[in-house]
Amino acid sequence: MFNPVAETRDGTSTNMADREKRRSAGSGSCLAATVAEPGPATKGSDREFLSQAGVGELLRGALLKMVEARPDDPVGFLADHFGSLAAAVVESGSEDLKEPRLSDGSSGDEGARGARAQQRLNRALWHLRLAHHSQRSAFGNNVRVAYDLLSLTGPFGHAGDSSPAGAPGGGVSGALYTQTLRCLCGEGGVPASTSAPLLCRLHCHDHEAVPYGVFRHGVLTCAVFSDYIRQAQRLYAQVCQPDEGPASRAACLAVLGALREALETSRDADSPSVKALRRLEASAKMSPHQLARVMTEAQARGPAGHMDAKEFENAAAELFIARVKVVS
Amino acid sequence: MSADDVTKGVACTLKPPVFLHFGGGDSKTQGCCSGVCVIDVALPPGKTTITFKNFYTALVSVRLQRRSPGQEGAAAKWCTALRDRPLMTNPHTEAGAQDYYSIDRKQMQVEPDGVSSIRLILKQPSSAWLTFSVQDVRIFPRMQPVRKELVFPPQDPLDVASVSCRLQQMWALSQVMQSSQSHAASVGRFDVRTTHARTSKYIFHLLTSP
Protein backbone atom coordinates (compact mmCIF):
# COMPACT_ATOMS: atom_id res chain seq x y z
CA MET A 1 0.00 0.00 0.00
CA PHE A 2 1.15 3.53 -0.65
CA ASN A 3 2.27 5.10 2.60
CA PRO A 4 3.27 8.70 2.04
CA VAL A 5 5.11 9.33 5.28
CA ALA A 6 8.10 7.06 5.59
CA GLU A 7 9.89 7.58 8.85
CA THR A 8 12.68 5.21 7.98
CA ARG A 9 14.32 4.18 4.72
CA ASP A 10 12.75 0.77 4.91
CA GLY A 11 9.22 1.63 3.93
CA THR A 12 8.00 -1.92 3.93
CA SER A 13 8.46 -2.58 7.61
CA THR A 14 6.76 0.70 8.48
CA ASN A 15 3.74 -0.22 6.41
CA MET A 16 3.50 -3.61 8.03
CA ALA A 17 3.81 -2.07 11.47
CA ASP A 18 1.06 0.44 10.64
CA ARG A 19 -1.24 -2.24 9.39
CA GLU A 20 -0.72 -4.29 12.52
CA LYS A 21 -1.45 -1.27 14.71
CA ARG A 22 -4.65 -0.42 12.85
CA ARG A 23 -5.93 -3.96 12.89
CA SER A 24 -5.42 -4.24 16.60
CA ALA A 25 -7.18 -0.88 17.05
CA GLY A 26 -10.20 -2.39 15.32
CA SER A 27 -10.66 0.49 12.80
CA GLY A 28 -12.80 -0.43 9.81
CA SER A 29 -11.03 1.85 7.36
CA CYS A 30 -8.08 -0.41 6.70
CA LEU A 31 -8.40 -2.42 3.52
CA ALA A 32 -6.49 -5.40 4.92
CA ALA A 33 -8.88 -5.62 7.83
CA THR A 34 -12.00 -5.42 5.68
CA VAL A 35 -10.81 -8.25 3.43
CA ALA A 36 -11.03 -10.52 6.44
CA GLU A 37 -14.61 -9.40 7.16
CA PRO A 38 -16.61 -8.95 3.96
CA GLY A 39 -20.13 -7.49 4.15
CA PRO A 40 -22.36 -4.66 2.88
CA ALA A 41 -21.18 -2.25 5.59
CA THR A 42 -17.58 -2.38 4.31
CA LYS A 43 -18.32 -1.08 0.77
CA GLY A 44 -18.68 2.55 1.85
CA SER A 45 -15.47 2.39 3.82
CA ASP A 46 -13.65 0.90 0.78
CA ARG A 47 -14.68 3.88 -1.30
CA GLU A 48 -13.82 6.31 1.47
CA PHE A 49 -10.41 4.78 1.84
CA LEU A 50 -9.69 4.89 -1.90
CA SER A 51 -10.74 8.51 -2.23
CA GLN A 52 -8.72 9.44 0.87
CA ALA A 53 -5.59 7.88 -0.52
CA GLY A 54 -6.18 9.58 -3.89
CA VAL A 55 -5.81 6.25 -5.66
CA GLY A 56 -8.15 7.31 -8.47
CA GLU A 57 -5.91 10.22 -9.43
CA LEU A 58 -2.81 8.07 -9.18
CA LEU A 59 -4.17 5.41 -11.49
CA ARG A 60 -5.59 7.95 -13.90
CA GLY A 61 -2.20 9.66 -14.13
CA ALA A 62 -0.46 6.33 -14.67
CA LEU A 63 -2.86 5.32 -17.45
CA LEU A 64 -2.53 8.69 -19.21
CA LYS A 65 1.24 8.45 -19.15
CA MET A 66 1.03 4.91 -20.45
CA VAL A 67 -1.20 5.90 -23.36
CA GLU A 68 1.22 8.71 -24.28
CA ALA A 69 4.32 6.55 -24.09
CA ARG A 70 2.92 3.26 -25.45
CA PRO A 71 5.76 1.20 -24.01
CA ASP A 72 6.65 -2.29 -25.15
CA ASP A 73 6.89 -3.45 -21.56
CA PRO A 74 3.79 -2.16 -19.76
CA VAL A 75 4.55 -3.76 -16.39
CA GLY A 76 8.11 -2.40 -16.35
CA PHE A 77 6.81 0.99 -17.37
CA LEU A 78 4.27 1.07 -14.56
CA ALA A 79 6.94 -0.08 -12.10
CA ASP A 80 9.25 2.74 -13.21
CA HIS A 81 6.44 5.25 -13.06
CA PHE A 82 5.38 4.44 -9.53
CA GLY A 83 9.02 4.12 -8.48
CA SER A 84 9.80 7.60 -9.71
CA LEU A 85 6.68 8.99 -8.01
CA ALA A 86 7.67 7.36 -4.75
CA ALA A 87 11.22 8.67 -5.00
CA ALA A 88 9.91 12.19 -5.67
CA VAL A 89 7.67 12.08 -2.63
CA VAL A 90 10.39 10.64 -0.41
CA GLU A 91 12.74 13.41 -1.45
CA SER A 92 10.24 16.16 -0.79
CA GLY A 93 9.53 14.54 2.54
CA SER A 94 13.19 14.50 3.48
CA GLU A 95 13.56 18.16 2.49
CA ASP A 96 10.95 19.04 5.10
CA LEU A 97 12.81 17.12 7.73
CA LYS A 98 16.14 18.79 6.80
CA GLU A 99 18.06 15.78 8.02
CA PRO A 100 20.89 14.35 5.97
CA ARG A 101 20.55 10.72 5.09
CA LEU A 102 24.19 9.88 5.55
CA SER A 103 25.51 12.19 8.20
CA ASP A 104 29.06 10.92 8.13
CA GLY A 105 30.66 14.27 7.41
CA SER A 106 31.29 16.50 4.43
CA SER A 107 32.39 13.76 2.03
CA GLY A 108 29.30 11.76 2.89
CA ASP A 109 27.13 14.81 2.22
CA GLU A 110 28.78 15.41 -1.12
CA GLY A 111 28.38 11.79 -2.03
CA ALA A 112 24.73 11.84 -1.05
CA ARG A 113 24.08 15.03 -2.97
CA GLY A 114 25.85 13.65 -6.03
CA ALA A 115 23.86 10.45 -5.83
CA ARG A 116 20.60 12.36 -5.51
CA ALA A 117 21.50 14.60 -8.44
CA GLN A 118 22.26 11.51 -10.51
CA GLN A 119 18.93 10.04 -9.44
CA ARG A 120 17.13 13.22 -10.51
CA LEU A 121 18.95 13.19 -13.83
CA ASN A 122 17.94 9.58 -14.43
CA ARG A 123 14.33 10.35 -13.64
CA ALA A 124 14.35 13.43 -15.88
CA LEU A 125 15.81 11.35 -18.73
CA TRP A 126 13.17 8.69 -18.14
CA HIS A 127 10.47 11.32 -18.58
CA LEU A 128 12.11 12.71 -21.70
CA ARG A 129 12.23 9.26 -23.26
CA LEU A 130 8.49 8.67 -22.89
CA ALA A 131 7.28 10.48 -25.99
CA HIS A 132 8.88 11.09 -29.36
CA HIS A 133 9.46 14.73 -30.25
CA SER A 134 6.91 14.50 -33.04
CA GLN A 135 4.16 14.04 -30.41
CA ARG A 136 4.23 17.76 -29.69
CA SER A 137 1.98 18.10 -26.66
CA ALA A 138 3.11 14.90 -24.92
CA PHE A 139 6.76 15.77 -25.51
CA GLY A 140 6.18 19.33 -24.28
CA ASN A 141 4.56 18.06 -21.07
CA ASN A 142 7.43 15.66 -20.45
CA VAL A 143 10.00 18.41 -20.97
CA ARG A 144 8.17 20.54 -18.43
CA VAL A 145 8.16 17.70 -15.88
CA ALA A 146 11.86 17.02 -16.49
CA TYR A 147 12.67 20.72 -16.10
CA ASP A 148 10.77 20.94 -12.82
CA LEU A 149 12.54 17.82 -11.56
CA LEU A 150 15.97 19.12 -12.41
CA SER A 151 15.39 22.61 -11.10
CA LEU A 152 14.50 21.51 -7.54
CA THR A 153 17.06 23.08 -5.25
CA GLY A 154 19.12 20.57 -3.32
CA PRO A 155 18.05 19.48 0.16
CA PHE A 156 20.49 21.90 1.76
CA GLY A 157 19.47 24.77 -0.46
CA HIS A 158 22.45 27.02 0.25
CA ALA A 159 22.94 29.96 -2.07
CA GLY A 160 26.30 29.83 -3.77
CA ASP A 161 26.55 26.17 -2.90
CA SER A 162 28.73 24.10 -5.18
CA SER A 163 26.03 21.46 -5.24
CA PRO A 164 25.33 20.27 -8.78
CA ALA A 165 21.67 19.76 -8.00
CA GLY A 166 20.16 23.20 -7.74
CA ALA A 167 20.94 26.62 -9.12
CA PRO A 168 20.38 29.87 -7.22
CA GLY A 169 17.65 31.99 -8.74
CA GLY A 170 15.62 29.09 -10.09
CA GLY A 171 16.17 27.23 -13.33
CA VAL A 172 18.31 24.23 -14.09
CA SER A 173 22.03 24.46 -13.47
CA GLY A 174 24.19 24.63 -16.57
CA ALA A 175 26.06 21.50 -15.54
CA LEU A 176 22.88 19.41 -15.24
CA TYR A 177 21.60 20.86 -18.51
CA THR A 178 24.79 19.89 -20.35
CA GLN A 179 24.72 16.42 -18.82
CA THR A 180 21.08 15.97 -19.91
CA LEU A 181 21.87 16.96 -23.47
CA ARG A 182 24.92 14.71 -23.59
CA CYS A 183 22.89 11.72 -22.34
CA LEU A 184 20.09 12.40 -24.85
CA CYS A 185 22.53 12.44 -27.77
CA GLY A 186 24.28 9.33 -26.52
CA GLU A 187 21.06 7.38 -26.04
CA GLY A 188 19.95 8.42 -29.52
CA GLY A 189 22.92 6.56 -30.97
CA VAL A 190 24.98 9.63 -31.88
CA PRO A 191 28.72 9.18 -31.25
CA ALA A 192 30.25 11.75 -28.91
CA SER A 193 32.56 13.15 -31.59
CA THR A 194 29.59 13.88 -33.88
CA SER A 195 27.49 15.56 -31.19
CA ALA A 196 30.38 17.59 -29.71
CA PRO A 197 30.03 20.57 -32.09
CA LEU A 198 26.27 20.66 -31.44
CA LEU A 199 26.75 20.67 -27.68
CA CYS A 200 29.25 23.51 -28.13
CA ARG A 201 26.56 25.65 -29.75
CA LEU A 202 23.96 24.79 -27.13
CA HIS A 203 26.43 25.15 -24.27
CA CYS A 204 25.60 26.94 -21.03
CA HIS A 205 28.20 27.49 -18.35
CA ASP A 206 28.01 25.33 -15.25
CA HIS A 207 27.20 28.25 -13.00
CA GLU A 208 24.43 29.66 -15.21
CA ALA A 209 20.75 29.19 -14.48
CA VAL A 210 19.13 27.82 -17.61
CA PRO A 211 15.60 29.14 -18.20
CA TYR A 212 12.81 26.87 -19.46
CA GLY A 213 12.89 28.18 -23.05
CA VAL A 214 16.57 27.40 -23.49
CA PHE A 215 16.19 24.00 -21.80
CA ARG A 216 13.27 23.03 -24.05
CA HIS A 217 15.08 24.15 -27.18
CA GLY A 218 18.23 22.25 -26.21
CA VAL A 219 16.36 19.04 -25.46
CA LEU A 220 14.28 19.24 -28.65
CA THR A 221 17.36 19.97 -30.76
CA CYS A 222 19.19 16.95 -29.37
CA ALA A 223 16.18 14.68 -29.92
CA VAL A 224 15.77 15.93 -33.48
CA PHE A 225 19.53 15.65 -34.10
CA SER A 226 19.52 11.97 -33.03
CA ASP A 227 16.77 11.25 -35.55
CA TYR A 228 18.64 13.22 -38.19
CA ILE A 229 21.86 11.25 -37.70
CA ARG A 230 19.98 7.96 -37.82
CA GLN A 231 18.44 9.03 -41.14
CA ALA A 232 21.87 10.04 -42.43
CA GLN A 233 23.23 6.59 -41.55
CA ARG A 234 20.38 4.92 -43.42
CA LEU A 235 20.87 7.29 -46.34
CA TYR A 236 24.51 6.27 -46.61
CA ALA A 237 23.45 2.62 -46.66
CA GLN A 238 21.07 3.42 -49.52
CA VAL A 239 23.63 5.33 -51.58
CA CYS A 240 26.11 2.45 -51.16
CA GLN A 241 25.92 -0.05 -53.98
CA PRO A 242 25.54 -3.36 -52.13
CA ASP A 243 28.46 -5.24 -53.66
CA GLU A 244 31.03 -2.54 -53.89
CA GLY A 245 31.82 -1.64 -50.28
CA PRO A 246 31.98 2.07 -49.47
CA ALA A 247 29.86 4.44 -51.51
CA SER A 248 31.21 6.44 -54.41
CA ARG A 249 32.45 9.86 -53.35
CA ALA A 250 30.73 11.53 -56.27
CA ALA A 251 27.33 10.08 -55.38
CA CYS A 252 27.68 11.05 -51.70
CA LEU A 253 28.70 14.59 -52.54
CA ALA A 254 25.81 14.88 -54.98
CA VAL A 255 23.28 13.77 -52.37
CA LEU A 256 24.71 16.02 -49.65
CA GLY A 257 24.88 18.87 -52.13
CA ALA A 258 21.18 18.50 -52.88
CA LEU A 259 20.41 18.64 -49.15
CA ARG A 260 22.65 21.67 -48.65
CA GLU A 261 20.97 23.55 -51.49
CA ALA A 262 17.54 22.72 -50.11
CA LEU A 263 18.53 23.95 -46.63
CA GLU A 264 19.98 27.14 -48.03
CA THR A 265 16.92 27.80 -50.16
CA SER A 266 14.53 27.47 -47.23
CA ARG A 267 16.26 30.02 -45.00
CA ASP A 268 14.03 32.20 -42.81
CA ALA A 269 11.70 34.62 -44.47
CA ASP A 270 9.59 37.41 -43.06
CA SER A 271 6.35 36.95 -44.91
CA PRO A 272 4.55 33.59 -44.91
CA SER A 273 4.11 33.66 -48.69
CA VAL A 274 7.84 34.03 -49.30
CA LYS A 275 8.45 31.28 -46.76
CA ALA A 276 6.03 28.96 -48.55
CA LEU A 277 7.63 29.73 -51.91
CA ARG A 278 11.09 29.00 -50.56
CA ARG A 279 9.89 25.69 -49.14
CA LEU A 280 8.51 24.70 -52.54
CA GLU A 281 11.80 25.60 -54.19
CA ALA A 282 13.66 23.59 -51.58
CA SER A 283 11.54 20.51 -52.15
CA ALA A 284 12.10 20.81 -55.91
CA LYS A 285 15.83 20.57 -55.27
CA MET A 286 15.28 17.21 -53.55
CA SER A 287 12.81 15.74 -56.02
CA PRO A 288 13.66 12.31 -57.53
CA HIS A 289 14.01 13.89 -60.98
CA GLN A 290 16.50 16.49 -59.78
CA LEU A 291 18.40 13.89 -57.78
CA ALA A 292 18.67 11.55 -60.75
CA ARG A 293 20.02 14.41 -62.87
CA VAL A 294 22.52 15.49 -60.26
CA MET A 295 23.74 11.95 -59.69
CA THR A 296 24.21 11.24 -63.39
CA GLU A 297 26.28 14.40 -63.68
CA ALA A 298 28.27 13.43 -60.63
CA GLN A 299 28.94 9.98 -62.02
CA ALA A 300 30.15 11.49 -65.27
CA ARG A 301 32.18 14.38 -63.91
CA GLY A 302 32.53 13.92 -60.16
CA PRO A 303 35.65 13.14 -58.13
CA ALA A 304 36.82 9.57 -58.07
CA GLY A 305 37.22 7.47 -54.99
CA HIS A 306 35.00 6.51 -52.10
CA MET A 307 33.58 8.07 -48.99
CA ASP A 308 33.25 6.06 -45.82
CA ALA A 309 30.27 6.10 -43.47
CA LYS A 310 31.93 8.25 -40.81
CA GLU A 311 32.87 11.03 -43.21
CA PHE A 312 29.34 11.04 -44.67
CA GLU A 313 27.82 11.21 -41.20
CA ASN A 314 30.07 14.10 -40.18
CA ALA A 315 29.29 16.01 -43.37
CA ALA A 316 25.55 15.55 -42.83
CA ALA A 317 25.87 16.56 -39.16
CA GLU A 318 27.77 19.68 -40.18
CA LEU A 319 24.86 20.73 -42.43
CA PHE A 320 22.48 20.48 -39.46
CA ILE A 321 24.74 22.07 -36.85
CA ALA A 322 25.55 25.04 -39.11
CA ARG A 323 21.93 26.11 -38.71
CA VAL A 324 21.84 25.86 -34.91
CA LYS A 325 22.19 29.29 -33.31
CA VAL A 326 24.67 29.62 -30.50
CA VAL A 327 22.92 30.01 -27.14
CA SER A 328 23.58 33.43 -25.67
CA MET B 1 9.48 12.14 -89.09
CA SER B 2 10.15 15.46 -87.41
CA ALA B 3 9.08 16.74 -84.05
CA ASP B 4 6.53 18.98 -85.71
CA ASP B 5 4.83 15.99 -87.27
CA VAL B 6 4.33 14.47 -83.89
CA THR B 7 2.72 17.48 -82.32
CA LYS B 8 0.75 18.98 -85.20
CA GLY B 9 -0.11 16.02 -87.31
CA VAL B 10 0.49 15.66 -90.97
CA ALA B 11 -1.38 17.61 -93.52
CA CYS B 12 -3.65 15.34 -95.43
CA THR B 13 -5.91 15.96 -98.31
CA LEU B 14 -9.55 15.71 -97.37
CA LYS B 15 -11.88 15.19 -100.24
CA PRO B 16 -15.25 16.95 -99.95
CA PRO B 17 -17.88 14.91 -98.08
CA VAL B 18 -20.27 12.93 -100.18
CA PHE B 19 -23.73 12.66 -98.77
CA LEU B 20 -25.56 9.55 -99.81
CA HIS B 21 -29.10 9.99 -100.90
CA PHE B 22 -31.72 7.56 -101.96
CA GLY B 23 -34.68 7.86 -104.13
CA GLY B 24 -35.14 10.61 -106.70
CA GLY B 25 -33.64 9.27 -109.93
CA ASP B 26 -34.04 12.47 -111.94
CA SER B 27 -32.12 15.61 -111.28
CA LYS B 28 -35.08 17.67 -110.21
CA THR B 29 -36.13 15.91 -107.03
CA GLN B 30 -33.48 15.91 -104.43
CA GLY B 31 -33.83 12.57 -102.77
CA CYS B 32 -33.92 11.98 -99.04
CA CYS B 33 -30.91 12.20 -96.94
CA SER B 34 -29.91 8.79 -95.78
CA GLY B 35 -27.91 10.13 -92.91
CA VAL B 36 -24.64 8.75 -94.22
CA CYS B 37 -21.68 10.74 -95.39
CA VAL B 38 -18.35 9.54 -96.69
CA ILE B 39 -15.07 11.40 -96.50
CA ASP B 40 -11.99 10.08 -98.23
CA VAL B 41 -8.59 10.98 -96.89
CA ALA B 42 -5.46 10.58 -98.94
CA LEU B 43 -2.39 10.39 -96.79
CA PRO B 44 1.23 9.47 -96.82
CA PRO B 45 2.04 6.03 -95.42
CA GLY B 46 2.97 5.14 -91.88
CA LYS B 47 0.44 7.19 -89.98
CA THR B 48 -1.69 5.66 -87.29
CA THR B 49 -3.65 8.06 -85.11
CA ILE B 50 -6.57 10.09 -86.37
CA THR B 51 -7.94 13.02 -84.40
CA PHE B 52 -10.86 15.19 -85.31
CA LYS B 53 -13.51 17.50 -83.97
CA ASN B 54 -16.98 16.19 -84.18
CA PHE B 55 -19.85 18.21 -85.62
CA TYR B 56 -23.10 16.40 -84.85
CA THR B 57 -22.03 13.01 -86.19
CA ALA B 58 -23.51 10.13 -84.23
CA LEU B 59 -21.37 7.20 -85.42
CA VAL B 60 -18.17 6.86 -87.39
CA SER B 61 -16.67 3.93 -89.24
CA VAL B 62 -13.17 3.82 -90.60
CA ARG B 63 -12.16 1.85 -93.63
CA LEU B 64 -8.61 1.55 -94.76
CA GLN B 65 -7.29 0.91 -98.21
CA ARG B 66 -4.05 -0.82 -97.73
CA ARG B 67 -1.54 -2.86 -99.46
CA SER B 68 -0.19 -5.79 -97.51
CA PRO B 69 3.61 -5.71 -97.28
CA GLY B 70 4.18 -8.96 -99.13
CA GLN B 71 2.04 -8.07 -102.09
CA GLU B 72 3.45 -4.88 -103.51
CA GLY B 73 2.13 -5.50 -106.94
CA ALA B 74 -1.43 -6.45 -106.02
CA ALA B 75 -4.27 -3.93 -105.86
CA ALA B 76 -4.90 -2.28 -102.56
CA LYS B 77 -7.87 -3.69 -100.69
CA TRP B 78 -10.41 -1.93 -98.55
CA CYS B 79 -10.95 -3.29 -95.06
CA THR B 80 -12.85 -2.05 -92.04
CA ALA B 81 -10.68 -0.84 -89.21
CA LEU B 82 -13.45 0.48 -87.00
CA ARG B 83 -17.16 -0.10 -87.32
CA ASP B 84 -19.81 2.27 -86.00
CA ARG B 85 -17.96 3.84 -83.15
CA PRO B 86 -20.45 6.03 -81.28
CA LEU B 87 -19.50 9.68 -80.90
CA MET B 88 -22.81 10.92 -79.52
CA THR B 89 -24.50 8.96 -76.72
CA ASN B 90 -27.92 9.91 -78.06
CA PRO B 91 -28.07 10.98 -81.70
CA HIS B 92 -30.98 13.34 -81.00
CA THR B 93 -29.26 15.29 -78.21
CA GLU B 94 -26.26 17.54 -77.98
CA ALA B 95 -24.01 15.29 -75.86
CA GLY B 96 -20.72 14.69 -77.66
CA ALA B 97 -21.89 16.70 -80.66
CA GLN B 98 -18.88 18.99 -80.77
CA ASP B 99 -16.29 17.01 -78.84
CA TYR B 100 -12.76 16.12 -79.89
CA TYR B 101 -11.99 12.47 -80.58
CA SER B 102 -8.99 10.44 -81.46
CA ILE B 103 -8.75 7.00 -82.99
CA ASP B 104 -5.57 5.15 -82.19
CA ARG B 105 -4.07 2.14 -83.92
CA LYS B 106 -4.90 0.08 -80.85
CA GLN B 107 -8.60 0.69 -81.36
CA MET B 108 -8.48 -0.46 -84.96
CA GLN B 109 -9.30 -4.04 -85.87
CA VAL B 110 -6.61 -4.24 -88.52
CA GLU B 111 -3.05 -2.95 -88.44
CA PRO B 112 -2.97 0.43 -90.19
CA ASP B 113 0.29 -0.26 -91.99
CA GLY B 114 0.85 0.43 -95.64
CA VAL B 115 -2.32 2.46 -95.80
CA SER B 116 -2.79 4.55 -98.90
CA SER B 117 -6.26 5.85 -98.22
CA ILE B 118 -8.67 6.23 -95.31
CA ARG B 119 -12.41 6.49 -95.67
CA LEU B 120 -14.47 7.93 -92.84
CA ILE B 121 -18.11 6.93 -92.98
CA LEU B 122 -20.24 9.23 -90.85
CA LYS B 123 -23.76 8.31 -89.81
CA GLN B 124 -26.43 10.49 -88.22
CA PRO B 125 -29.80 8.72 -88.07
CA SER B 126 -31.55 11.54 -86.23
CA SER B 127 -33.65 13.93 -88.27
CA ALA B 128 -32.81 16.69 -85.83
CA TRP B 129 -29.46 17.36 -87.45
CA LEU B 130 -29.58 17.86 -91.17
CA THR B 131 -25.95 18.78 -91.52
CA PHE B 132 -23.25 16.76 -89.91
CA SER B 133 -19.56 16.27 -90.50
CA VAL B 134 -16.19 16.10 -88.78
CA GLN B 135 -13.76 18.98 -88.72
CA ASP B 136 -10.06 19.50 -88.32
CA VAL B 137 -9.03 15.95 -89.18
CA ARG B 138 -5.38 15.28 -88.39
CA ILE B 139 -3.35 12.16 -88.82
CA PHE B 140 -0.42 11.48 -86.52
CA PRO B 141 2.56 9.34 -87.30
CA ARG B 142 3.46 6.22 -85.44
CA MET B 143 5.43 6.91 -82.30
CA GLN B 144 8.56 4.83 -81.94
CA PRO B 145 8.92 3.47 -78.41
CA VAL B 146 11.45 5.69 -76.62
CA ARG B 147 14.40 3.75 -75.32
CA LYS B 148 15.23 5.38 -71.98
CA GLU B 149 18.91 5.74 -71.11
CA LEU B 150 19.51 4.14 -67.75
CA VAL B 151 20.84 6.47 -65.09
CA PHE B 152 23.17 3.83 -63.69
CA PRO B 153 24.45 0.63 -65.23
CA PRO B 154 21.71 -2.02 -65.10
CA GLN B 155 23.28 -4.10 -62.38
CA ASP B 156 23.23 -1.20 -59.83
CA PRO B 157 19.88 0.54 -59.93
CA LEU B 158 19.66 3.27 -57.30
CA ASP B 159 16.24 3.83 -55.80
CA VAL B 160 16.17 7.59 -56.36
CA ALA B 161 12.66 7.93 -55.02
CA SER B 162 13.51 6.58 -51.59
CA VAL B 163 16.75 8.59 -51.44
CA SER B 164 14.68 11.68 -52.22
CA CYS B 165 12.18 10.71 -49.50
CA ARG B 166 14.91 10.34 -46.91
CA LEU B 167 16.49 13.66 -47.86
CA GLN B 168 13.12 15.33 -47.41
CA GLN B 169 12.76 13.79 -43.94
CA MET B 170 16.18 15.10 -42.98
CA TRP B 171 15.29 18.53 -44.30
CA ALA B 172 12.03 18.49 -42.32
CA LEU B 173 13.91 17.61 -39.10
CA SER B 174 16.18 20.58 -39.66
CA GLN B 175 13.11 22.80 -40.10
CA VAL B 176 11.65 21.55 -36.79
CA MET B 177 14.85 22.59 -35.04
CA GLN B 178 14.90 25.99 -36.75
CA SER B 179 11.30 26.81 -35.90
CA SER B 180 11.92 25.85 -32.25
CA GLN B 181 14.91 28.15 -32.01
CA SER B 182 12.98 31.15 -33.20
CA HIS B 183 10.87 30.84 -30.02
CA ALA B 184 13.74 30.03 -27.67
CA ALA B 185 14.52 32.43 -24.86
CA SER B 186 18.02 33.60 -24.10
CA VAL B 187 20.14 32.72 -21.12
CA GLY B 188 20.71 36.39 -20.50
CA ARG B 189 24.42 36.02 -20.43
CA PHE B 190 26.44 39.01 -19.27
CA ASP B 191 29.13 39.41 -21.90
CA VAL B 192 32.15 40.70 -20.01
CA ARG B 193 34.19 41.59 -23.05
CA THR B 194 31.78 44.03 -24.75
CA THR B 195 30.77 45.60 -21.45
CA HIS B 196 34.38 46.02 -20.46
CA ALA B 197 35.17 47.71 -23.75
CA ARG B 198 32.21 50.04 -23.40
CA THR B 199 33.04 50.95 -19.82
CA SER B 200 36.67 51.73 -20.59
CA LYS B 201 35.63 53.88 -23.54
CA TYR B 202 33.28 55.82 -21.28
CA ILE B 203 35.92 56.32 -18.60
CA PHE B 204 38.47 57.44 -21.19
CA HIS B 205 35.94 59.91 -22.55
CA LEU B 206 35.31 61.25 -19.06
CA LEU B 207 39.01 61.66 -18.35
CA THR B 208 39.88 63.31 -21.62
CA SER B 209 36.96 65.71 -21.94
CA PRO B 210 37.69 69.22 -20.76
From TrEMBL, chain B:
Which superkingdom heads the taxonomic lineage of this protein's source? Eukaryota
Q: What does the entry list under GO cellular component?
A: nucleoplasm
Which InterPro entries is this protein grouped with?
A: Nicolin-1
Protein name in the entry: Nicolin 1
Q: Which organism is it from?
A: Hippocampus comes (Tiger tail seahorse)
